[in-house]
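Lecture notes, structural biology module. Today: joint structure prediction for complexes of two components.
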Amino acid sequence: MILPKTSEITDKNPQVVSGENINLQLNISSSPHIRHSETVPSIMLWVIGALVPSMIASVLIFGFRALFLTTLSAITAVAVEALICKMMKRASTIGDFSALITGILLAFNLSPSLPWWMVVLGSAFSIAVAKMAFGGLGSNFINPALAGRAFLMACYPAEMTSWVAPKLGTISGINGITSATPLANIKSAMANGTFQALDFQDAIINLFSGNIGGCIGETSAIALLIGAVILLYKHIIGFTIPVSFIGTVFLLFWLFNGSGQVFTSGAIIVPFYHILSGGLFLGAFFMATDMVTSPITRKGKLIFGLGCGLLTFTIRKFGGYPEGVSYSILIMNLFVPHIERYTRPKIYGEVKKRD
Amino acid sequence: MARKFSFKGGIHPPHSKKKTEHLTIEQFPAPQKVIVPLSQHIGAPAKPLVKKGDRVLAGQLIAESSGFVSAVVHSSISGTVQSVGPFPHPCGKKVISIEIENDGLNEMAVFSPLLNWRDAAQGELVQKIQAAGIVGMGGASFPTHVKLSPPSNKTIDTLIINGAECEPYLTADHRLMLERTEQLLTGILILKKILSAQKCFIGIEENKLDAIQAVTPLLKDQKYREIKFARLKVKYPQGGEKQLINAITGREVPSGGLPMDAGCVVQNIGTAVAVCDAVIHGVPLFERVVTVCGPVVKHPKNYLVRIGTPLRLLLEATETDLSAAKKVIMGGPMMGTTQSDLDAPVIKSTSGILVLDSVQPGVREHPCINCGHCVHACPVHLIPSRLAKFVEKENMEEAVEWNIMDCMECGSCTFVCPSKINLVHFIRLGKFRVQAMRAAKAPGK
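The predicted structure, tokenised, for the full assembly:
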């Protein structure tokens, strides 16, 4: 039996036939004949919308330079993607808005004091190397924004880890933690034995509002949560990855909080401190949930989230580097094909069930 | 509120039933000419018993079944056989059909009623149903007498009547539940008696409140007490045979098996009403309720239509603006088939004629972004996006390994896909290829 080639009977060529009497043009196609209104660009626009609260927070915390760098990064990402499409003589893909998200997310993962040209370089790397070189949207296997961040981290470690004091500190009267990020503080405090639970309780208020040093979009937990609620409500992200990711970090830092105890106030404050600081919320809600680079199955998402959490804990606790979210996600991205292979859902009727 | 029954997966397409759900079923006038196909069921086509020039009566047997899995065919009008030959069929091909010209007399064949059906033997009842040419009227068109004759090694303990009508636009079953409630329930009792099923459920989606209100009070009656009502959550494909079994009994039909392997038989509302007519009045299946609806249909209707009536007449009677029509669909928008020839007739499984004024995106607008919507939507718990990729890369072994053959082609994955990839189309193609490969490998070839 000769079978038609796939391309001949796909949805690309709807056949048009004419009726005899009137000028009737009826389209022949296979079912279903109705579609949901959601499209790839609409998903991406909702993600961008969900990032707006964090954008506003970053301007309040770090000033207009945060907005400038984010815009610059976004424009670079879109321009590089357009350029590459042109070079490859392909239809431009910037209309799906995914490059825009990569640009914004990369900037959100950078220090507000980073020189502008580094931002441009990182954004170009994200799109050109991590995304387009592997076939563009849907084919990239690691999160492009995080790849860009890792690239900049390797090239300019000093600039990437120099932070500025948040502006809100002077307004609210509470002294923000300047020179260093909260995670660097807790790491050195733990190492020196100068850890005081009460100091950190005060700090948690700042962590929630984002009145701390850190990357442009990662500091305000409140703003990130507002965005997360939007994405959860629109079913663009699910609970599985963020809850398992954040939950694992929380649980491990609670059990291994360094004090040797679990139910003291000092012990309980440590995991809160860890989940609210660094890029954990940004990573767990906006980066680890990236559809392209996370598993498609529910069980797979759970394993992915647990893996991210475990790696973040390991890097923060035992590594020389206070932050761990971005590398955890990047490493787990690499495992996605394997996770998907081993978490195939049980199909309907796979095991005979009788009541 | 009573317990709501449902299954895992599925989608929520707009119901689009408002325009027709309140319209009483109207008798559509018998047309000047009918084209009655010999293939209106799954299985071997029927063998014609009449030839050109023969006079036939409405309800007269005109084609006999050619095997066990086959169904007889009756004339739907009285008149003269014009020809027996290939005619347009809703499946898109030309199929051997009997063309009959109406003599306008509407003379009925003599039917043999069976009023004391409760005393009849099960075999006799099945025979009546077989003789009436009844097939599954929800769209699958599987001969009903076959479903009612399970092999002796299978025990059927549950009969489920499918009142979900989860396809958007269609309201034919909904109207039958409202207008022919007694006949429906009698039909169910007959089916229950044939199967000797201990349990019997009628599942209705909770958006058909008036149908629920029409049916449930009667179930309190001594006569119908053995039928239980199951309130179904509104979700597509709630009316899928396997989903309905799972929703109501919690059982799963084993992969590759039939509902009877889970001890269940599922019958459609229209089928149950037809069973009542066939057994009690001896009337064969030669007309059915068809919903004619869609954005360009000026006067949407629920018509009682003679089998063999060309679609064109239904569209003309409803003043459908054909110049604005982009797609004419037989069945619902999720699983219906597009029609290229409006001379194709209404057949036993035609639940609706839908005319759409837009060509929905069938083209891949974006690459797959692995969003997982199709995985959530799949009522069989497959990974449609992966299956589509396997088929596209012609990797059929992997496709089979990932259970491509279990796909029921409900189209939920394609409905939700934000990239507008016609996933179910790839999967259909893949299933077709696997079947062809298996046939080529089969011994004896």
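Point to remember: Chain A touches chain B through 58 residues (CB under 8 Å).
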